[in-house]
Amino acid sequence: MPAYNFKSMQVVPPAKDFIDIVLSKTQRQTPTVVHNGWAIQRIRQFYMRKVKFTAQNWNEKLTQILDDFPKVEDIHPFYSDLLNVLYDKDHYKLALGQLNTARNLIDKLSQDYVRLLKYGDSLYRCKELKRAALGRMCTLMKGQDASLKYLEQVRQHMSRLPGIDPNARSLLLCGYPNVGKSSMMNILTRADVEVQPYAFTTKSLYVGHMDYRYMRWQVLDTPGILDRPLEERNTIEMQSITALAHLRCAVLYLVDISEQCGYSLAQQAALFHSIKPLFANKPLLVLVNKTDVRPLEALSPEEAALLQGMGDEARRISSGGAAAVDGGDAEGSALLTMSTLTEEGVMAAKQAACDRLLNFRVELKVAGKRIADVLNRMHVALPKHRDASLRPPVIPASVAAARAAAAAGQAAAKRKLEVQLQEEGGGAGVYSADLRKHYDLKDPAWRYDIMPEVLDGHNIADFIDPDIDAKLAELEREEAQLEAQHQEQVRRREGGCLIAAASSGV
Protein backbone atom coordinates (compact mmCIF):
# COMPACT_ATOMS: atom_id res chain seq x y z
CA MET A 1 0.00 0.00 0.00
CA PRO A 2 1.18 3.51 -0.70
CA ALA A 3 2.53 5.35 2.36
CA TYR A 4 0.68 8.57 1.50
CA ASN A 5 -2.90 9.00 0.33
CA PHE A 6 -3.46 12.44 -1.16
CA LYS A 7 -6.89 11.54 -2.56
CA SER A 8 -8.59 11.88 0.84
CA MET A 9 -7.98 15.62 1.14
CA GLN A 10 -11.17 17.67 1.27
CA VAL A 11 -11.98 20.43 -1.21
CA VAL A 12 -10.64 23.90 -0.36
CA PRO A 13 -13.38 26.44 -1.21
CA PRO A 14 -12.58 29.98 -2.37
CA ALA A 15 -13.00 32.81 0.11
CA LYS A 16 -16.54 33.79 -1.00
CA ASP A 17 -17.88 30.26 -0.75
CA PHE A 18 -15.98 29.72 2.49
CA ILE A 19 -17.70 32.73 4.07
CA ASP A 20 -21.12 31.59 2.84
CA ILE A 21 -20.56 28.09 4.28
CA VAL A 22 -19.59 29.33 7.74
CA LEU A 23 -22.25 32.08 8.06
CA SER A 24 -24.95 29.77 6.75
CA LYS A 25 -24.06 27.15 9.35
CA THR A 26 -24.11 29.83 12.07
CA GLN A 27 -27.56 30.96 10.91
CA ARG A 28 -28.91 27.41 10.86
CA GLN A 29 -27.51 26.10 14.12
CA THR A 30 -27.92 29.05 16.49
CA PRO A 31 -31.08 30.80 17.73
CA THR A 32 -32.33 33.55 15.44
CA VAL A 33 -35.00 35.34 17.50
CA VAL A 34 -34.19 37.93 20.17
CA HIS A 35 -36.58 40.33 21.91
CA ASN A 36 -35.97 43.76 23.34
CA GLY A 37 -37.83 42.84 26.50
CA TRP A 38 -35.32 40.18 27.47
CA ALA A 39 -32.96 40.69 30.33
CA ILE A 40 -29.66 42.23 29.25
CA GLN A 41 -27.73 39.18 30.45
CA ARG A 42 -29.81 36.92 28.17
CA ILE A 43 -29.26 39.26 25.21
CA ARG A 44 -25.52 39.23 25.84
CA GLN A 45 -25.48 35.42 25.94
CA PHE A 46 -27.49 35.30 22.68
CA TYR A 47 -24.92 37.32 20.71
CA MET A 48 -21.89 35.87 22.47
CA ARG A 49 -23.07 32.43 21.39
CA LYS A 50 -23.18 33.51 17.76
CA VAL A 51 -19.67 34.99 17.87
CA LYS A 52 -18.22 31.93 19.60
CA PHE A 53 -19.98 29.52 17.24
CA THR A 54 -18.76 31.36 14.14
CA ALA A 55 -15.17 31.44 15.41
CA GLN A 56 -15.35 27.75 16.25
CA ASN A 57 -16.55 26.98 12.70
CA TRP A 58 -13.67 28.96 11.18
CA ASN A 59 -11.23 27.18 13.47
CA GLU A 60 -12.53 23.70 12.58
CA LYS A 61 -12.56 24.35 8.82
CA LEU A 62 -9.08 25.86 8.75
CA THR A 63 -7.68 23.15 11.02
CA GLN A 64 -9.08 20.49 8.67
CA ILE A 65 -7.33 22.13 5.71
CA LEU A 66 -4.03 22.46 7.57
CA ASP A 67 -4.16 18.83 8.76
CA ASP A 68 -5.05 17.45 5.32
CA PHE A 69 -2.09 18.99 3.53
CA PRO A 70 1.19 17.19 4.27
CA LYS A 71 3.92 18.97 6.18
CA VAL A 72 7.07 19.25 4.09
CA GLU A 73 9.30 18.43 7.06
CA ASP A 74 7.32 15.35 8.12
CA ILE A 75 7.04 13.41 4.86
CA HIS A 76 9.53 11.29 2.93
CA PRO A 77 12.29 13.29 1.17
CA PHE A 78 11.02 12.02 -2.17
CA TYR A 79 7.61 13.62 -1.66
CA SER A 80 9.20 16.68 -0.08
CA ASP A 81 11.33 17.34 -3.16
CA LEU A 82 8.43 16.43 -5.47
CA LEU A 83 6.31 19.10 -3.77
CA ASN A 84 9.14 21.59 -4.28
CA VAL A 85 9.45 20.69 -7.97
CA LEU A 86 5.72 20.77 -8.73
CA TYR A 87 4.37 23.52 -6.49
CA ASP A 88 7.37 25.53 -5.16
CA LYS A 89 7.98 24.60 -1.52
CA ASP A 90 8.24 28.24 -0.38
CA HIS A 91 4.92 29.23 -1.93
CA TYR A 92 3.29 26.10 -0.50
CA LYS A 93 4.55 26.74 3.04
CA LEU A 94 3.65 30.42 2.79
CA ALA A 95 0.03 29.63 1.85
CA LEU A 96 -0.37 27.19 4.74
CA GLY A 97 1.29 29.68 7.09
CA GLN A 98 -1.15 32.42 6.08
CA LEU A 99 -4.11 30.17 6.83
CA ASN A 100 -2.62 29.28 10.20
CA THR A 101 -2.17 32.98 10.99
CA ALA A 102 -5.76 33.69 9.92
CA ARG A 103 -6.99 30.96 12.26
CA ASN A 104 -5.11 32.46 15.20
CA LEU A 105 -6.35 35.97 14.39
CA ILE A 106 -9.96 34.77 14.21
CA ASP A 107 -9.60 33.15 17.63
CA LYS A 108 -8.16 36.39 18.99
CA LEU A 109 -11.02 38.42 17.44
CA SER A 110 -13.55 36.10 19.03
CA GLN A 111 -12.00 36.51 22.47
CA ASP A 112 -11.87 40.31 22.15
CA TYR A 113 -15.47 40.74 21.02
CA VAL A 114 -16.81 38.27 23.57
CA ARG A 115 -15.08 40.36 26.21
CA LEU A 116 -16.76 43.53 24.80
CA LEU A 117 -20.15 41.82 24.62
CA LYS A 118 -19.98 41.10 28.33
CA TYR A 119 -20.32 44.88 28.88
CA GLY A 120 -23.00 45.55 26.24
CA ASP A 121 -25.73 47.71 27.82
CA SER A 122 -28.47 47.37 25.17
CA LEU A 123 -29.79 45.11 22.43
CA TYR A 124 -28.58 47.50 19.74
CA ARG A 125 -25.05 47.73 21.12
CA CYS A 126 -24.76 43.92 21.44
CA LYS A 127 -26.06 43.43 17.90
CA GLU A 128 -23.58 45.93 16.47
CA LEU A 129 -20.71 44.24 18.32
CA LYS A 130 -21.76 40.89 16.86
CA ARG A 131 -21.91 42.36 13.35
CA ALA A 132 -18.49 43.92 13.79
CA ALA A 133 -17.01 40.62 14.99
CA LEU A 134 -18.42 38.57 12.11
CA GLY A 135 -17.57 41.31 9.61
CA ARG A 136 -13.93 41.44 10.67
CA MET A 137 -13.70 37.64 10.46
CA CYS A 138 -15.09 37.67 6.92
CA THR A 139 -12.83 40.55 5.88
CA LEU A 140 -9.86 38.62 7.24
CA MET A 141 -10.81 35.53 5.20
CA LYS A 142 -11.37 37.58 2.03
CA GLY A 143 -7.69 38.44 2.21
CA GLN A 144 -6.83 34.73 2.06
CA ASP A 145 -8.61 34.18 -1.26
CA ALA A 146 -5.36 33.81 -3.25
CA SER A 147 -3.95 31.26 -0.79
CA LEU A 148 -7.18 29.25 -0.79
CA LYS A 149 -7.31 29.10 -4.60
CA TYR A 150 -3.65 28.11 -4.78
CA LEU A 151 -4.13 25.32 -2.22
CA GLU A 152 -7.16 24.03 -4.12
CA GLN A 153 -5.09 23.78 -7.30
CA VAL A 154 -2.37 21.97 -5.36
CA ARG A 155 -4.97 19.60 -3.88
CA GLN A 156 -6.41 18.78 -7.30
CA HIS A 157 -2.96 18.05 -8.71
CA MET A 158 -1.87 16.03 -5.67
CA SER A 159 -5.01 13.90 -5.86
CA ARG A 160 -3.92 12.86 -9.36
CA LEU A 161 -0.42 11.86 -8.25
CA PRO A 162 0.23 8.10 -8.36
CA GLY A 163 0.40 6.27 -5.06
CA ILE A 164 4.14 5.62 -4.80
CA ASP A 165 5.49 3.84 -1.72
CA PRO A 166 9.10 5.06 -1.28
CA ASN A 167 10.00 1.99 0.79
CA ALA A 168 8.56 -0.71 -1.49
CA ARG A 169 10.50 -2.91 -3.90
CA SER A 170 10.69 -0.78 -7.05
CA LEU A 171 12.04 -0.79 -10.59
CA LEU A 172 12.67 2.65 -12.10
CA LEU A 173 12.81 3.16 -15.88
CA CYS A 174 14.81 6.17 -17.05
CA GLY A 175 16.55 7.47 -20.15
CA TYR A 176 16.09 9.85 -23.04
CA PRO A 177 12.56 10.56 -24.33
CA ASN A 178 11.02 8.01 -26.70
CA VAL A 179 13.47 5.17 -25.99
CA GLY A 180 10.75 2.67 -24.98
CA LYS A 181 10.20 3.26 -21.24
CA SER A 182 6.41 3.41 -21.44
CA SER A 183 6.26 0.39 -23.76
CA MET A 184 8.29 -1.65 -21.26
CA MET A 185 6.03 -0.39 -18.46
CA ASN A 186 2.96 -1.67 -20.29
CA ILE A 187 4.60 -5.07 -20.82
CA LEU A 188 5.71 -5.56 -17.21
CA THR A 189 2.53 -4.30 -15.53
CA ARG A 190 -1.14 -3.83 -16.23
CA ALA A 191 -0.69 -0.09 -16.54
CA ASP A 192 -1.89 1.59 -19.72
CA VAL A 193 0.61 4.39 -20.28
CA GLU A 194 0.20 6.36 -23.48
CA VAL A 195 2.80 5.51 -26.15
CA GLN A 196 3.33 7.92 -29.05
CA PRO A 197 6.16 8.35 -31.59
CA TYR A 198 7.21 11.77 -30.28
CA ALA A 199 9.25 13.01 -27.35
CA PHE A 200 7.84 13.79 -23.88
CA THR A 201 4.67 11.78 -24.28
CA THR A 202 5.06 10.96 -20.58
CA LYS A 203 4.89 14.23 -18.66
CA SER A 204 4.65 12.88 -15.09
CA LEU A 205 5.49 9.84 -12.99
CA TYR A 206 3.45 6.70 -13.63
CA VAL A 207 3.36 3.67 -11.36
CA GLY A 208 2.37 0.09 -12.13
CA HIS A 209 2.49 -3.12 -10.13
CA MET A 210 3.63 -6.66 -10.86
CA ASP A 211 4.39 -9.89 -9.00
CA TYR A 212 7.73 -11.66 -8.84
CA ARG A 213 8.63 -14.53 -6.50
CA TYR A 214 5.28 -14.12 -4.75
CA MET A 215 6.11 -10.53 -3.82
CA ARG A 216 4.52 -7.26 -4.89
CA TRP A 217 6.68 -4.86 -6.92
CA GLN A 218 6.05 -1.37 -8.24
CA VAL A 219 7.42 -0.17 -11.57
CA LEU A 220 7.94 3.57 -12.11
CA ASP A 221 7.86 5.14 -15.54
CA THR A 222 9.64 8.49 -15.48
CA PRO A 223 9.54 11.32 -18.04
CA GLY A 224 12.47 11.58 -20.41
CA ILE A 225 15.64 13.42 -19.36
CA LEU A 226 17.80 15.62 -21.57
CA ASP A 227 21.54 16.08 -21.14
CA ARG A 228 21.81 19.62 -19.85
CA PRO A 229 22.70 21.37 -16.57
CA LEU A 230 20.41 20.81 -13.61
CA GLU A 231 19.28 24.43 -13.37
CA GLU A 232 18.11 24.32 -17.01
CA ARG A 233 15.92 21.25 -16.60
CA ASN A 234 12.17 21.84 -16.57
CA THR A 235 9.53 20.53 -14.16
CA ILE A 236 8.92 17.37 -16.22
CA GLU A 237 12.60 16.36 -16.13
CA MET A 238 12.98 17.26 -12.45
CA GLN A 239 10.36 14.67 -11.51
CA SER A 240 12.67 11.98 -12.91
CA ILE A 241 15.67 13.47 -11.12
CA THR A 242 13.74 13.51 -7.83
CA ALA A 243 12.75 9.85 -8.18
CA LEU A 244 16.33 8.84 -9.01
CA ALA A 245 17.71 10.80 -6.07
CA HIS A 246 15.42 9.56 -3.30
CA LEU A 247 13.92 6.16 -4.17
CA ARG A 248 15.82 3.04 -3.15
CA CYS A 249 15.16 1.00 -6.27
CA ALA A 250 16.72 -0.88 -9.15
CA VAL A 251 17.45 1.53 -12.01
CA LEU A 252 16.92 0.40 -15.61
CA TYR A 253 18.61 2.82 -18.00
CA LEU A 254 17.15 2.31 -21.48
CA VAL A 255 19.24 2.96 -24.59
CA ASP A 256 17.72 3.22 -28.08
CA ILE A 257 20.25 1.40 -30.26
CA SER A 258 18.35 2.28 -33.44
CA GLU A 259 18.58 6.03 -32.67
CA GLN A 260 14.94 6.41 -33.77
CA CYS A 261 14.33 8.48 -30.65
CA GLY A 262 16.26 11.34 -32.26
CA TYR A 263 19.36 11.04 -30.10
CA SER A 264 22.59 9.28 -31.03
CA LEU A 265 24.29 6.63 -28.93
CA ALA A 266 26.99 9.17 -28.03
CA GLN A 267 24.34 11.54 -26.64
CA GLN A 268 22.67 8.74 -24.69
CA ALA A 269 26.04 7.66 -23.27
CA ALA A 270 26.80 11.28 -22.32
CA LEU A 271 23.47 11.50 -20.42
CA PHE A 272 24.28 8.24 -18.62
CA HIS A 273 27.61 9.59 -17.38
CA SER A 274 26.02 12.96 -16.57
CA ILE A 275 23.42 11.54 -14.15
CA LYS A 276 25.75 8.77 -12.93
CA PRO A 277 25.96 10.22 -9.37
CA LEU A 278 22.22 9.56 -8.97
CA PHE A 279 22.82 5.82 -9.51
CA ALA A 280 25.07 5.48 -6.45
CA ASN A 281 24.14 2.68 -4.04
CA LYS A 282 21.51 1.31 -6.39
CA PRO A 283 21.42 -1.81 -8.57
CA LEU A 284 21.85 -0.62 -12.15
CA LEU A 285 21.19 -2.26 -15.52
CA VAL A 286 21.72 -0.82 -18.99
CA LEU A 287 19.01 -2.15 -21.33
CA VAL A 288 19.72 -1.85 -25.05
CA ASN A 289 16.29 -1.55 -26.67
CA LYS A 290 15.02 -1.88 -30.26
CA THR A 291 17.46 -4.64 -31.22
CA ASP A 292 14.83 -5.86 -33.69
CA VAL A 293 15.56 -2.76 -35.79
CA ARG A 294 19.34 -2.69 -35.36
CA PRO A 295 21.17 -5.64 -33.79
CA LEU A 296 24.39 -5.29 -31.84
CA GLU A 297 26.39 -6.78 -34.71
CA ALA A 298 25.53 -3.76 -36.87
CA LEU A 299 27.25 -1.30 -34.54
CA SER A 300 30.52 0.35 -35.39
CA PRO A 301 33.51 -0.25 -33.08
CA GLU A 302 33.12 3.23 -31.59
CA GLU A 303 29.42 2.68 -30.81
CA ALA A 304 30.13 -0.78 -29.39
CA ALA A 305 32.80 0.74 -27.16
CA LEU A 306 30.28 3.32 -25.89
CA LEU A 307 27.82 0.58 -24.94
CA GLN A 308 30.55 -1.51 -23.37
CA GLY A 309 31.69 1.50 -21.37
CA MET A 310 28.17 2.04 -20.02
CA GLY A 311 27.93 -1.65 -19.14
CA ASP A 312 31.27 -1.61 -17.31
CA GLU A 313 30.32 1.53 -15.41
CA ALA A 314 26.92 0.06 -14.47
CA ARG A 315 28.62 -3.11 -13.20
CA ARG A 316 31.08 -1.04 -11.19
CA ILE A 317 28.29 1.04 -9.60
CA SER A 318 26.19 -2.03 -8.81
CA SER A 319 29.10 -3.92 -7.29
CA GLY A 320 29.27 -1.32 -4.55
CA GLY A 321 26.06 -2.66 -3.01
CA ALA A 322 24.39 -5.35 -5.07
CA ALA A 323 25.62 -8.89 -4.77
CA ALA A 324 26.31 -11.07 -7.74
CA VAL A 325 23.40 -12.87 -9.24
CA ASP A 326 23.52 -16.59 -9.93
CA GLY A 327 27.13 -17.27 -9.28
CA GLY A 328 28.87 -14.01 -10.00
CA ASP A 329 28.57 -10.78 -11.86
CA ALA A 330 29.90 -12.01 -15.15
CA GLU A 331 31.33 -9.83 -17.90
CA GLY A 332 28.55 -7.89 -19.62
CA SER A 333 25.81 -8.98 -17.21
CA ALA A 334 24.90 -5.34 -16.50
CA LEU A 335 24.34 -4.76 -20.24
CA LEU A 336 21.26 -6.58 -21.58
CA THR A 337 19.53 -6.46 -24.95
CA MET A 338 15.79 -6.52 -25.57
CA SER A 339 13.00 -5.35 -27.84
CA THR A 340 9.75 -3.93 -26.47
CA LEU A 341 8.11 -4.54 -29.86
CA THR A 342 8.72 -8.30 -30.00
CA GLU A 343 9.05 -8.52 -26.14
CA GLU A 344 12.28 -10.47 -26.61
CA GLY A 345 14.55 -10.16 -23.58
CA VAL A 346 12.09 -8.08 -21.53
CA MET A 347 11.35 -10.84 -19.03
CA ALA A 348 15.06 -11.67 -18.69
CA ALA A 349 15.76 -8.00 -17.90
CA LYS A 350 12.95 -7.97 -15.34
CA GLN A 351 14.28 -11.11 -13.63
CA ALA A 352 17.85 -9.78 -13.52
CA ALA A 353 16.76 -6.42 -12.09
CA CYS A 354 14.51 -7.98 -9.43
CA ASP A 355 17.20 -10.46 -8.33
CA ARG A 356 19.77 -7.70 -8.08
CA LEU A 357 17.45 -5.56 -5.96
CA LEU A 358 16.55 -8.43 -3.63
CA ASN A 359 20.22 -9.24 -3.04
CA PHE A 360 20.97 -5.55 -2.58
CA ARG A 361 18.27 -5.17 0.10
CA VAL A 362 19.51 -8.28 1.91
CA GLU A 363 23.09 -7.00 1.96
CA LEU A 364 21.94 -3.63 3.30
CA LYS A 365 20.17 -5.34 6.18
CA VAL A 366 23.17 -7.55 6.92
CA ALA A 367 25.49 -4.54 6.92
CA GLY A 368 23.16 -2.54 9.17
CA LYS A 369 23.54 -2.00 12.91
CA ARG A 370 20.44 -4.01 13.83
CA ILE A 371 21.78 -7.30 12.46
CA ALA A 372 23.84 -7.92 15.61
CA ASP A 373 20.75 -7.68 17.81
CA VAL A 374 18.92 -10.09 15.56
CA LEU A 375 21.78 -12.60 15.45
CA ASN A 376 22.00 -12.60 19.24
CA ARG A 377 18.42 -13.83 19.40
CA MET A 378 18.90 -16.53 16.76
CA HIS A 379 20.14 -20.08 17.28
CA VAL A 380 20.82 -22.47 14.43
CA ALA A 381 20.14 -26.05 15.53
CA LEU A 382 22.47 -28.71 14.08
CA PRO A 383 20.86 -32.16 14.44
CA LYS A 384 23.05 -35.10 15.50
CA HIS A 385 22.58 -38.88 15.24
CA ARG A 386 21.03 -40.14 18.44
CA ASP A 387 22.19 -43.74 17.83
CA ALA A 388 23.75 -46.01 15.22
CA SER A 389 20.41 -47.09 13.72
CA LEU A 390 19.80 -46.24 10.09
CA ARG A 391 16.45 -44.71 9.29
CA PRO A 392 16.09 -44.62 5.51
CA PRO A 393 13.11 -42.92 3.93
CA VAL A 394 9.94 -45.03 3.90
CA ILE A 395 8.64 -45.69 0.40
CA PRO A 396 5.08 -47.09 0.18
CA ALA A 397 4.81 -50.57 -1.29
CA SER A 398 2.57 -49.36 -4.12
CA VAL A 399 5.15 -46.74 -5.12
CA ALA A 400 7.97 -49.31 -4.97
CA ALA A 401 5.95 -51.73 -7.12
CA ALA A 402 5.22 -49.00 -9.66
CA ARG A 403 8.90 -48.07 -9.83
CA ALA A 404 9.92 -51.70 -10.26
CA ALA A 405 7.36 -52.16 -13.04
CA ALA A 406 8.56 -49.01 -14.76
CA ALA A 407 12.19 -50.18 -14.50
CA ALA A 408 11.23 -53.54 -16.02
CA GLY A 409 9.41 -51.82 -18.87
CA GLN A 410 6.00 -53.06 -17.75
CA ALA A 411 2.91 -51.00 -17.46
CA ALA A 412 1.95 -50.43 -13.83
CA ALA A 413 -1.42 -51.80 -12.82
CA LYS A 414 -3.93 -49.02 -12.48
CA ARG A 415 -6.54 -48.99 -9.78
CA LYS A 416 -10.09 -49.14 -11.06
CA LEU A 417 -12.08 -46.07 -10.35
CA GLU A 418 -15.52 -46.20 -8.76
CA VAL A 419 -17.03 -44.92 -12.00
CA GLN A 420 -15.57 -47.87 -13.91
CA LEU A 421 -16.84 -50.32 -11.28
CA GLN A 422 -20.28 -48.73 -11.56
CA GLU A 423 -20.36 -49.24 -15.32
CA GLU A 424 -19.29 -52.86 -14.92
CA GLY A 425 -21.92 -53.43 -12.19
CA GLY A 426 -24.93 -52.33 -14.24
CA GLY A 427 -24.67 -48.55 -14.16
CA ALA A 428 -26.27 -45.92 -11.97
CA GLY A 429 -29.33 -47.10 -10.04
CA VAL A 430 -28.26 -50.72 -10.15
CA TYR A 431 -24.74 -50.64 -8.80
CA SER A 432 -24.30 -50.26 -5.05
CA ALA A 433 -20.94 -48.92 -3.94
CA ASP A 434 -19.00 -51.12 -1.53
CA LEU A 435 -18.02 -48.82 1.30
CA ARG A 436 -16.65 -51.52 3.59
CA LYS A 437 -13.64 -52.24 1.39
CA HIS A 438 -12.04 -49.03 2.61
CA TYR A 439 -12.43 -49.86 6.33
CA ASP A 440 -9.08 -49.59 8.11
CA LEU A 441 -9.24 -52.49 10.60
CA LYS A 442 -6.57 -54.52 12.34
CA ASP A 443 -7.69 -57.66 10.50
CA PRO A 444 -9.04 -57.02 6.98
CA ALA A 445 -11.21 -60.15 7.38
CA TRP A 446 -13.36 -58.20 9.84
CA ARG A 447 -14.57 -55.79 7.13
CA TYR A 448 -17.55 -57.91 6.15
CA ASP A 449 -18.55 -59.20 9.63
CA ILE A 450 -22.26 -58.97 10.34
CA MET A 451 -21.37 -57.42 13.67
CA PRO A 452 -18.31 -55.23 13.11
CA GLU A 453 -15.60 -54.68 15.71
CA VAL A 454 -16.37 -52.05 18.29
CA LEU A 455 -13.59 -52.36 20.92
CA ASP A 456 -10.27 -54.24 21.10
CA GLY A 457 -11.21 -56.72 18.41
CA HIS A 458 -14.62 -57.54 19.97
CA ASN A 459 -18.12 -56.76 18.85
CA ILE A 460 -21.49 -56.97 20.58
CA ALA A 461 -21.91 -60.64 19.75
CA ASP A 462 -18.88 -61.47 21.87
CA PHE A 463 -20.67 -60.17 24.97
CA ILE A 464 -23.94 -62.20 24.57
CA ASP A 465 -24.45 -65.02 27.26
CA PRO A 466 -25.72 -68.32 25.67
CA ASP A 467 -27.69 -69.17 28.89
CA ILE A 468 -29.42 -65.83 28.96
CA ASP A 469 -32.91 -67.32 28.50
CA ALA A 470 -32.62 -69.81 31.42
CA LYS A 471 -31.20 -67.13 33.68
CA LEU A 472 -33.99 -64.74 32.69
CA ALA A 473 -36.63 -67.39 33.50
CA GLU A 474 -35.02 -68.05 36.90
CA LEU A 475 -35.09 -64.32 37.66
CA GLU A 476 -38.75 -64.10 36.73
CA ARG A 477 -39.61 -67.13 38.92
CA GLU A 478 -37.74 -65.67 41.86
CA GLU A 479 -39.44 -62.31 41.44
CA ALA A 480 -42.88 -63.97 41.34
CA GLN A 481 -42.08 -65.85 44.56
CA LEU A 482 -41.03 -62.67 46.30
CA GLU A 483 -44.16 -60.92 45.12
CA ALA A 484 -46.34 -63.74 46.52
CA GLN A 485 -44.59 -63.56 49.89
CA HIS A 486 -45.14 -59.81 49.98
CA GLN A 487 -48.85 -60.17 49.24
CA GLU A 488 -49.19 -62.80 52.02
CA GLN A 489 -47.56 -60.45 54.53
CA VAL A 490 -49.88 -57.62 53.54
CA ARG A 491 -52.92 -59.85 53.87
CA ARG A 492 -51.89 -61.03 57.33
CA ARG A 493 -51.24 -57.48 58.49
CA GLU A 494 -54.65 -56.33 57.33
CA GLY A 495 -56.40 -59.32 59.01
CA GLY A 496 -54.72 -58.54 62.33
CA CYS A 497 -55.86 -54.93 62.15
CA LEU A 498 -59.49 -55.98 61.59
CA ILE A 499 -59.47 -58.35 64.60
CA ALA A 500 -58.04 -55.63 66.83
CA ALA A 501 -60.68 -53.15 65.73
CA ALA A 502 -63.50 -55.64 66.41
CA SER A 503 -62.19 -56.41 69.90
CA SER A 504 -62.03 -52.79 70.90
CA GLY A 505 -65.58 -52.19 69.69
CA VAL A 506 -66.95 -54.99 71.92
Write structural notes for this entry:
By secondary structure, the protein is α/β, with parallel strands linked by helices. 50% of the residues lie in helices and 7% in strands. The protein is built from 15 helices and six strands. A six-stranded mixed beta sheet has the order 2-3-1-4-5-6, sandwiched between helices. Strand 5, helix 10 and strand 6 form a beta-alpha-beta unit. Helix 3 crosses helix 4, helix 4 runs antiparallel to helix 5 and helix 9 packs parallel to helix 10. It is flat. The relative contact order is 0.06.
Features:
6-stranded mixed beta sheet; 50% helix
The global form is: flat
Structural class: alpha/beta
Low-confidence stretches: 321-332
Number of strands: 6
The helical percent reads 40-55%
Alpha-carbon distance between the termini? 113 Å
Q: For the largest beta sheet, what order do the strands appear in spatially?
A: 2-3-1-4-5-6
Average pLDDT taken over every residue = 88
Major pleated sheet: 6 strands, mixed
Q: Estimate what percentage of residues fall within beta strands.
A: 5-15%
Our count of helices gives: 15
Radius of gyration: 45 Å
The SSE string, one letter per element, is: HHHHHHEHEEHEHEHEHHHHH
What's the arrangement of secondary structure elements?
Elements: H1 15-29, H2 40-68, H3 77-87, H4 89-117, H5 123-142, H6 145-159, E1 170-175, H7 181-188, E2 206-212, E3 215-221, H8 235-246, E4 250-256, H9 265-274, E5 284-289, H10 301-318, E6 335-337, H11 346-367, H12 371-376, H13 397-407, H14 418-424, H15 468-505
Parallel strand pairs: 1-3, 1-4, 4-5, 5-6
Antiparallel strand pairs: 2-3
Helix pairs in contact: 1-2, 2-4, 2-5, 3-4, 3-8, 4-5, 4-6, 9-10
